[in-house]
Write a structure and sequence with these properties.
Immunoglobulin-like; 2 domains; 5-stranded mixed sheet; 5% helix; 59% strand
Amino acid sequence: MKKLFTILIGSLLVISVFAQQNKKHQSRTDDAHYKSVSEYVVQNLPDFWQPDYLFSNSHRANNKTSLSSNEVKQALDSIVVMGPTWTKDLSITEVRHYTYDSRGLCTEILILDYEPEIVEPLPRTYEVLTYDNQDRPKEYIIYYWDMTNSVWEENSKIEYVYSGGLISEFIRYTWNDDNQWELEMKDVMTYDANNDMVLYVVSTWNDGDYVNSFKAEISYYDNHYLKEEMNYVWVISTEEWMLTSKEVYTYDANWNVILEMQSTWVGDEWKDVNKTEMTYEGDQLVLSVQSSNYSYTDWTFDYKDEYNYIGNDGLLNIIEYKWEYESWQFFYKHEYSYTDAHMFDESLLPFDWIYGHDFTYQLTKVSESSWFSEGWTDNFQFLMYYSDKEVNAIHEMSLGGISVYPNPNNGVFTLKIDNEYKNTDVAVIDIFGRLLSTETISNTQTASIEKTFDLSAYGTGIYFLRITQADHEVYKKLVVQ
């Protein structure tokens, strides 16, 4: 079953997620230009925990819950981004590596950049997420790589507050020059008795207090589907909310969105500025999304997306058109590849996953091309790699009895294991999830044991040690310089 919002958000943002990831957490004080909460959230908050109202009511349960004790799933281990070079051929430009805990929750993302003529990858960001005892995001921290000092430096942080089982606040911080977390912004959500979000307020931290910035008042139909959103900005000079825009949603008999009308408040009346129209096949399969802008006295086409499917098994491609010279012109094409060896709902996905939940089979590749000189030119490819994630009877163990030093290192490092661990399996894994070596370390002594490893033959970069002892498992990240 294909709902518009789950497909649309996933497909239209597939390319921008990588480019925008580092920008979306930077300080923002110009929230007035956002016309809606949905646009604001997409640009400002992590994709892994956005307010439920962005999705239709039937999709409120998502795939970010933890696993039961007897599940085995395919975990999205890494995404390799292929981009164009000066020769126009695609080559590796970025790798995202994901780490999960024993509950199947993504806890880390390591992002590496690859540049032409530079053999070794360059660390970019390291993202860490912690959860509460209900498997809900608790704290999200982003680190940037300091190339001068070869260390990770704190950049931004988001804390999550819950009330009555619902997310009630996002509190955002930036790392200041005094090496401390400094308050930046706060987003507060209010719900009605039906647990529908009815108020979303954004405020910025200024001189020891929060200052209002952006507000949305949201209304719903009786079945919880979004009806209308009224948006305001805070005027500092008058200390009042100023009405700026609204979005009104219209549905068909199957409660698919068929019209999204955007208007701005000018003087003392509403002026229509944009409308998005959707068509469907059957009850819920979206076929097209068309946007138009109102200019002076008439509507003018802007863009159009056409969706094509592989029967009922998944999205085949999306072809995007721009309205130019009084006709529709090819603009972009997004193509999707799958493996039928695994179903989509058998996949463990990271917290920054933005695709919809409507794929039938496991997604393996997304390609983007643009129309140029009467032909399609490759822009990007996103290659998804998966590995087995066995959860049954596997528990995380702390690093209290295990240490690795030095780290970073030149390829040679020592693993120290306390005597409480007798037979320990140690595996070395690279950033692509490939197993480089494995061995069992037996400790029959009454004291701790030390084992020296040498990864210098593999070159500089990021590696992982997977340390397993009995029914416990832990990962340790290594930096080889």
